[in-house]
Design a protein that fits this description.
Layout lengths: L18 H12 L11 H14 L4 E5 L2 H12 L4 E5 L4 H4 L4 H5 L4 E4 L12 H5 L9 E8 L10 H8 L11 E6 L2 H8 L14 E4 L10 E5 L8 H7 L8 H11 L3 H21 L5 E2 L7 E5 L2 H9 L5 E3 L4 E5 L6 H16 L2
Parallel strand pairs: 2-3, 2-4, 4-5, 5-6
Antiparallel strand pairs: 1-7, 6-7, 8-9, 9-11, 10-11
Helix pairs in contact: 1-10, 2-10, 8-11, 11-13
């Protein structure tokens, strides 16, 4: 087996770009041959139309280069510098964005609310809203949740509504809910419901819609269901260095995957591979799944020497310290051959221990 294929389980970011995306980029380069910049082109208009069609609403859509920007700029639209944002301690906004949310909000504080499998427990939120001493503490105005979570769990619709229903309480009507959807496609493949049902109809204000982890190029879509939050966002995006001059090359990948449902097909494939891999690893003595495999990743406990032996054989996968597990991620290009080879090596290593 080629050593470069052994990199694939490190992250879904290691995967190549989808063939249909390359084809659409070539088409966008020809039709039109010349186009206005900064999104005033027919390709970007078509991508926005398809996203609105997907979510069955007149949402506001902005393309940016990566998920950290989408998350941080979204939270910047929801908060002021003296505000607070509730997030799970596992969340990407907290652990993997180099304080970008605080930077782009001008200093709004990220405040932890815990819950199982990377999900925020709704019961943990009310006490947080009463923390501190009024004007002397951060005013909590937003909640960010991750779908699927950083340990691969998927929020069911009723779990999302349990969070967003907090707005029905007196004084909390203005609470905004952001969804980090870096792996939103994988979550939707598991839920099997219309995207609208799991987002704005469930009370989500804005969504960072992930593309790169589902086979697109360096492009994510920030979708505002609460259109008031998008007021003057064009300037916020420009100031944040996220406005592409040749926008059609950011938009074309979305046309490619949304036109015929490829975004969901590829995510479903990645999920099936993760199920197969997780089941195989869990069948090996000394290995155990730390969380149910609900999206495209398997989190496995194993001894450090077994993990090192797999690394020595060329396999790439990461320790996920907050989950006390090793993370294996599948993607649209993962093959049964690669899964079988990894499992064969793992069994051989354990057999010698």
């Amino acid at each position: 087996m080629n050593d470069d294929l052994k990199i694939q389980f490190a992250s879904d970011n290691t995967a190549p770009v989808l063939p249909e995306v390359w084809e659409e980029l070539q088409r966008a380069d020809r039709e039109p041959r010349f186009a206005l910049g900064y999104g005033d082109d027919p390709v970007t208009s078509e991508a926005v139309r398809l996203i609105r069609e997907l979510f069955e609403t007149e949402c506001e859509v902005f393309f940016v280069f990566n998920g950290s920007a989408a998350n941080s700029l979204a939270l910047g639209s929801m908060t002021r510098s003296w505000h607070g944002v509730l997030c799970h301690p596992f969340s990407h906004a907290e652990t993997d964005e180099a304080n970008a949310p605080e930077f782009f909000t001008g200093g709004a504080k990220l405040i932890h609310v815990d819950g199982p499998a990377g999900k925020i427990d709704p019961e943990s939120i009310p006490p947080m809203l009463e923390r501190g001493h009024g004007i002397h503490s951060a005013k909590i105005t937003a909640v960010t949740l991750t779908q699927a979570t950083e340990v691969g769990a998927v929020y069911a619709q009723e779990e999302i509504r349990a969070l967003t229903s907090l707005r029905e309480r007196p004084g909390l009507e203005s609470l905004r809910f952001h969804m980090d959807g870096a792996r939103f496609a994988n979550a939707m493949a598991t839920l099997g419901v219309a995207p609208a049902e799991a987002t704005w109809k469930a009370g989500i204000s804005a969504l960072s819609l992930g593309g790169a982890k589902n086979g697109l190029t360096a492009t994510e879509a920030l979708v505002f269901f609460d259109r008031d939050l998008a007021a003057e966002f064009e300037w916020r995006r420009k100031q944040g260095g996220q406005l592409a001059s040749k926008m059609r090359y950011q938009a074309a990948p979305w046309v490619a995957v949304l036109r015929d449902g490829a975004w969901l097909r590829h995510a479903s494939h990645a999920n099936r591979c993760a199920q197969r891999l997780g089941k195989g690893l869990a069948s090996i003595p000394g290995m155990e799944l730390r969380y149910p495999v609900e999206a495209n990743a398997a989190f496995v406990s194993m001894s450090p020497d077994v993990a090192q032996a797999l690394h020595d054989r060329g396999w790439h996968f990461y320790p996920f310290s907050v989950a006390r597990a090793w993370r294996f991620v599948c993607n649209w290009a993962t093959t049964d051959e690669a899964i079988d080879a990894l499992l064969e090596d793992a069994r051989a290593i354990v057999a010698t221990r």
